[in-house]
Design a protein that fits this description.
CATH class: Alpha Beta
Order of helices and strands: HEEHEHEHHEEH
Number of helices: 6
Pfam families: GSHPx (PF00255)
InterPro entries: Glutathione_peroxidase (IPR000889), GPX_AS (IPR029759), Thioredoxin-like_sf (IPR036249), Thioredoxin_domain (IPR013766)
Family: Belongs to the glutathione peroxidase family.
Keywords: Oxidoreductase, Peroxidase, Signal
Strand order of the largest sheet: 4-3-5-6
Distance between the termini: 38 Å
Structural class: alpha+beta
Shape: globular
Protein name: Glutathione peroxidase
């Protein structure tokens, strides 16, 4: 019995170390859109299936915010989240963050997490998109490029801006990921 107690304690102490590891995509924190508040990505999103999207407030695809919100509302209780990253890499998110926030929150009623504007491609890409591009082998080619990431932090699918967030292309893969353990 005395030998069992140290073994149990050792096991208990080693479990949190592995549980605390975070996928590379979620290492670090990001500032929220038009806010001084930051989000610890690992704490907030670890273990969730994610659709990470580079957004723009003045793009022909900007109305996709409504569909992204619908997707978020439909699956948010199933361990899923959309995360938006506004970017002016394609010169369609001009103006300040306040203007971008107005488009997202007021014009389209977005409630899913939106991060501060940042580059999403090239050597200046924010750390999330740098890791996504490394894993996927492709960086955003235009606004509203979508990356589906499983709960392990692995990019499992990419979709160009022309693909609707609520298309069967996305929802079939998403449902196969989030419902496979149920």
């Amino acid at each position: 019995m005395k030998m069992l107690i140290p073994a149990v304690i050792t096991l208990a102490l080693s479990a949190p170390a592995s549980a605390q590891s975070c996928p590379d995509i979620l290492n670090g924190s990001q500032r929220k859109l038009n806010s001084n508040e930051t989000v610890d990505l690992c704490e907030t999103f670890k273990g969730k299936t994610l659709l990470v999207v580079n957004t723009a407030s003045q793009c022909g695809y900007t109305p996709q915010f409504e569909q992204l919100e619908a997707l978020y509302q439909k699956y948010k209780d199933e361990g899923f989240s959309v995360i938006g990253f506004p970017s002016n890499d394609f010169n369609q998110d001009r103006g300040n963050e306040e203007r971008s926030a107005k488009v997202c929150y007021l014009d389209y009623g977005v409630t899913f997490p939106m991060m501060a504007r940042s580059p999403v491609k090239g050597s200046d890409a924010n750390p999330v998109f740098a890791e996504i591009s490394k894993q996927a082998g492709v960086e955003p080619r235009w606004n509203f490029y979508k990356y589906l990431i499983n709960a392990k932090g692995e990019v499992v699918a990419t979709f160009p801006g022309s693909v609707s967030p609520i298309s069967s292309n996305i929802t079939m893969i998403l449902e196969s990921i989030i419902f496979k353990t149920k």
